[in-house]
Amino acid sequence: MSDEQSPATDGSTSNAASQKTMLRVAAIAGMLAVLIGAFGAHGLPDRLAGFSMDEETLARRLAQFDTGARYHLAHAIVLLVMVALPVQRTRVFRTSYWLTLAGIVFFSGSLYLLVLTNTPWLGAITPIGGTCWIIGWLLLAFTQPSPRR
Length: 149
Known about the structure:
Blueprint: H1 13-42, H2 44-49, H3 55-84, H4 91-117, H5 126-140
Helix pairs in contact: 1-3, 3-4, 4-5
């Protein structure tokens, strides 16, 4: 059986370890989303005041950070749901999972850095994260349900 067809829910030690890793990654992504979102709501405006930017730029930076935080939290939840899905843990599924995580890093991470450093060119990295999410969602559509027991 090829890797694309072999289920990773056969109870083997490596599959259990992979499942545990995926759960931990999802939980850490969720925790970071809450921490970063709280910082954005409570500490970010004072931090940005140090850049002495005009009101329009300040409002844009706050909105960019908020966008990153919202998408980060949404996709952290997606990672958690993926761990619980009754699907075969094929290469397609695992690639979808890791692309979802990469989307958080590139999309949300680039927005966080753009805002915290007031470096607009970092916005050019953001679409890489969006592309990761698009491909990840597409691959998830092609995962196979686990066989019923």
